[in-house]
Amino acid sequence: MRILIVDDSKAMQVILRRGVEKIDCDSMEIQVTDDGQKALDIIRVWRPSLVLSDWHMPEMTGIELLNAINREMLDINVGFVTTETSSERVKEAKNAGAKFILNKPFNDDALHQTVLPFFTDNTELDEHEEAFSNNGSITLPSVDIITKILNVVSKNTVNVEIAPSATYESSWSPCLLGLFADTEENKVRAISILTLPAACILGGSIDALPASTVQSSIDDRTIPQPILDNCEKLLRVISATIKGQNNKGEMQLRSVNYVPKVFPKIESLFQKPESERVDYEISIPGYGQGSLTIIKS
Description:
Layout: E1 2-6, H1 10-21, E2 29-33, H2 36-46, E3 50-53, H3 62-71, E4 77-82, H4 87-95, E5 101-103, H5 108-115, H6 122-127, E6 133-134, E7 139-140, H7 143-153, E8 159-162, E9 175-182, E10 188-194, H8 196-206, H9 211-220, H10 225-239, E11 251-259, H11 264-269, E12 277-284, E13 288-296
Parallel strand pairs: 1-2, 1-3, 3-4, 4-5
Antiparallel strand pairs: 6-7, 8-12, 9-10, 9-11, 10-13, 12-13
């Protein structure tokens, strides 16, 4: 994973670099530069996976850099980390193909939620196309993509396997219900269900909570607020891996709902065939195991 940071502020270069380096990724390489023209020269040779660019810079601005990348048809993910908030500028960036705009100031959590989806790049998506569930409406992430995301955000090793489709069991409650909506019409296109054990082990692993604390939550059948907050961060990252029709368009996490007990709507969702869902079995050594299901709505 190659990341290029482009900012004329040395302090911001350091902040971005330190923030990105906190993501646990063995193959990460980072370069920094202070203007768009230098960045373009680096991109032509080095071909980074992701460019984090400021907007306002001397010599060549961030939007000029993005336009130059487009003219040369370089297949590079570009996002802006900037103080620019003008709606016209934001629209200009999106129309030019910017993947995101992260406004300064920001914290590490915001930075990580923004860049983590790009740790599963387009090449990998193409390689595992056949492992995705796709009926022409939306595309659900493969086990390889989910495995990579979970192991980036977790401080523990996370094992993921495709599980056989099953009906909902009352022992999975309470659970977390995530709603994923398209960004154009804000219509719910997919729903995720994290069972109680899965929510606890994943939410706990993000903060490296003691295994005894995680097990206590499972035994007490509760999802403490810190674990719930971590699960929401995780689902926001997963939302970027759910693709719209023909792998175009973006999904966003619209809400995360704590569901204390099973109700008919959840049971009916779990009646959907394998072509409309993906079931993942998740395990973390020392923590336990649980399941995540993503279903087309």
